[in-house]
Please model this.
Amino acid sequence: MLAPRPFGSTGRTVCPAGFGAWAIGGTWGEVSEADAVAALNEALDRGVDFIDTADVYGDGRSERIIAQVLATRSGPRPFVATKAGRRITPHLAENYTRATLEAHIDRSRANLRMDCLDLVQLHCPPSPVYDSARVFDAMTAIRDAGKIAHFGVSVERIAEAQQAIRHPGVISVQIIYNLFRQRPADAFFAQAAASGIAVIARVPLASGLLTGKMTADSTFAADDHRSFNRNGEAFDKGETFSGVPYDVALQAVDALRPLVPQGASMAAFALRWILMQQGVTVVIPGSKSPAQSSGNAAVLSLPLLSDDTMQAARDIYTRLIAPHVHHLW
Ligand SMILES: NC(=O)c1ccc[n+]([C@@H]2O[C@H](COP(=O)([O-])OP(=O)(O)OC[C@H]3O[C@@H](n4cnc5c(N)ncnc54)[C@H](OP(=O)(O)O)[C@@H]3O)[C@@H](O)[C@H]2O)c1
Model:
């Protein structure tokens, strides 16, 4: 089993395989409440103890389902990371005030049924926020008021991560890192480790592509972002299929198939590739069903990947994927 990893400076360790709770909130087609509850319970049964959510996932549905599930379970409570900022309207840096952030955090506290939230991440805020001591001072004040234990950031770009960790109090950075987004390992993880910053790797399966199940004929529901955000129509295009053109991604997935260890799924392989990086604290695959949760938790028992496999994965990235993404984020 993969060992727990220290979560930055919190003094806590977490299982390196976490649970991404966006899809059980919304924007991924229909996920019934029963499936959402079962998916999360399965992950927790498999040893997952880190959950990532946000106030906007299903406008609070994800947070409320997490609270509902946790209320039925005994034992140590998992670490729950939520996010704030995307409910600010209009979504401008100047509207990131203490009063607004605190009101949104209060709603998350109610949704999650927690007096003090474990971690609140600024949710891909407008770029000027990263330069704003005022915003980070507001988060510090909310922390000092006892409403949150810690705060961090979820970023689109490496440069934003580097700016954010200069602010005192920031304990974690969430960033896209997967077989199709390799640059954070080159340009950020060493700096994060040196600063004691926890790194949360999101979109680890490139929105499902890296499970190997998708084809040119795959279709998605109208309310699934994989239908409506491929070119960034609603939010950063990197959040959908990691910003890789779909046909290119399918080609790269085919090139990766021979690297999957015998007996393993491509999803577990893709997650194991991420956890080869000690610079990653926790990876947070989204899952919509118990089968997906157990498939993703299988990463915990996969052995190290060989140097040859790692090099081959890098070569595929360099040849097919990097020209589309490396310079953008
Ligand atoms: N800005 C931000 O801060 C931000 C943005 C994006 C994500 N996140 C966080 O990161 C988490 C993970 O990213 P993500 O959910 O966008 O993408 P992801 O983890 O790369 O992909 C998740 C999707 O892949 C499919 N899937 C998952 N496990 C599978 C398995 N074992 N077998 C087959 N299919 C599987 C499911 O969709 P289908 O079954 O429908 O294919 C699932 O919804 C989110 O849940 C969220 O917590 C944060």
Observations:
- The radius of gyration is 18 Å.
